[in-house]
Amino acid sequence: MNRRRSGFLIVFLVFIRFLTYGQLPDGVAATQSFLDTIRVNYKSENTFPFDLNSVSMTANIPVRVHIVKNKKGLPGVVTTNLLSSVSLANTYFKNAGIRFFIDSINYIDDYNYSFITFNELTKELLTKYKRSNRINLFVVDSIKQDNKRTYGFTYFPNEPDSNIIYLDKNYSTGSSLTAMLGHFMGLLSTHESGGGQKLADESNCAASGDFICDTWADPGLHNQVIDSCLYIGTMKDNHSKYFMPSVANIMSDSPDKCKCILTPLQYRRIYYYYHKYRQFLNF
């Protein structure tokens, strides 16, 4: 390749990277305890009675929203955006017989609680404001894990006393809350590799990745999808096969504008883990 073409290629690649969607990553990674839980429950989950086309049960789950005010004493978030996010989540979760509703909105005046770092202040926040028998959604200015910012965090259903979701105020619209609720109900990220990476041909889908066999193998899409929803990554799996991931799955790190689907087996998992661990939340 001559220098002129080489120079053009470098400029082109820089331009493509510039176009990638500059969003924060999902902060929920698989814990060893939940990976063990999935393995133990896997057979039961996949034989649990569930028909996506005839779900009639509706579980009504209350969400108490806690908006932590910023340094100026302002909410820093529009409540109608949160209502829209809950409504959007319901368009997906109705396929698993679940509906969420905001039962109340609580404003917290101490801005020190608006920077979630899972330290003593975060424990104090929960002690003061968390309520039982509902999802506690804390809408805050910043969420950091190991000094890295994420747009949201929650706990998997096997964790005791885990009815908590944290959401960055900048992600109060779109599918970010839907993704957090997905984790809350047992879904791993499609790029999860804590239990081993799913191969590009998905042949090990039952024992690795997100442990779901109708989601596409995903090497991680954070900053790998441009504004037109085109995947530009070049990752290969352990067998030197290129990944061809879906940019549309809600549980991926694709840009929000690209995400619009959950798969039938993802709905099955939500349905199963709701019945096994989250049924106490039904209003």
Please tell me about this protein's structure:
This protein has 283 residues and is an alpha/beta fold. It has two domains: 48-187 and 264-283, 3-Layer(aba) Sandwich (Collagenase (Catalytic Domain)); 191-261, no CATH class. Helix content is 29%, strand content 15%. The protein has six helices and eight strands. It has helices at 3-19, 32-47, 79-93, 120-129, 176-184, 264-278; strands at 59-68, 98-108, 115-116, 135-140, 142-145, 148-149, 152-154, 164-168. The strands form two sheets. It has a five-stranded mixed β-sheet with strand order 2-1-4-8-7, covered by helices on one side. Strands 3-5-6 form a three-stranded mixed β-sheet, with no helix packed on it. Helix 3 (79-93) crosses helix 5. The longest helix is centred in the first third of the chain and has 17 residues, at 3-19. The chain is globular. Residues 3-21 have low confidence and may be disordered.
